[in-house]
Design brief:
Structural class: mainly alpha
Strand content: under 5%
Distance between the termini: 71 Å
Radius of gyration: 30 Å
Strand order of the largest sheet: 1-2
Number of helices: 6
């Protein structure tokens, strides 16, 4: 068994470690004595992670339990850093940036995280964020579709205007002038709508 220690004190193994049920339980119990028990999560993985410390920079995702722990104001940054197994700076940054955003959401959503189930409320917060991201993606798709339709319509009107101007050379008439002006007005209307998408090529 080889244990790697990174430059920030992070620990990793050179490969998976085979353990029996009793050893597994002891390992989990050991980690729960080192860190807050609620942040020690077990997840079954089917894929083997080949990269290890020293090969690349790993971004350690924060769990719901860890974010909930940030709201434990009875613990200072040093204590939380030790209990979460994270650097002092990462805890300090998350507390400074994430807590105000969470408090704003909680107030807007009428959530009492002081008396309520903190972990449940934090999960609701992230679920709400996911819904908002999904909604924004759908809105972007809808806006892209509208933009494509407008561009297609502008192209169609441009071809129509070109044909009308060619016809005017051989068969000029007040009626045709009115038709041409009507087409130009329609193109201008489309260009006004396209301005919100930073388009609007001249016809």
């Amino acid at each position: 068994m080889k244990i790697f220690v990174g430059d920030n004190g992070n620990v990793d193994f050179d490969g998976p470690i085979e353990v029996n049920d009793e050893q597994f339980e002891k390992i989990i119990d050991f980690f729960k004595t080192l860190y807050r028990s609620e942040v020690v999560e077990i997840d079954t993985e089917s894929d083997f992670r080949s990269e290890r410390i020293g090969e690349k920079l790993f971004q350690k995702t924060w769990s719901v339990a860890e974010y909930a722990a940030l709201l434990d104001l009875d613990k200072d940054t040093d204590e939380l850093s030790e209990e979460l197994g994270r650097t002092w700076m990462s805890v300090d940054i998350q507390r400074g940036q994430w807590i105000p955003r969470f408090q704003t959401w909680a107030k807007r959503s009428n959530k009492n995280f002081i008396k309520g189930d903190i972990k449940k409320i934090v999960k609701e917060y992230f679920d709400d964020l996911d819904k908002q991201k999904l909604l924004k993606r759908e809105q972007r798709k809808e806006e892209d579709l509208k933009k494509k339709r407008l561009l297609k319509e502008k192209k169609r009107l441009g071809k129509k205007l070109k044909s009308q101007k060619l016809l005017k050379r051989t068969r000029p008439s007040p009626e045709l002038d009115k038709i041409i002006q009507d087409t130009i007005t329609k193109i201008e209307d489309v260009e006004v709508k396209l301005k919100k998408y930073d388009f609007g090529d001249s016809y």
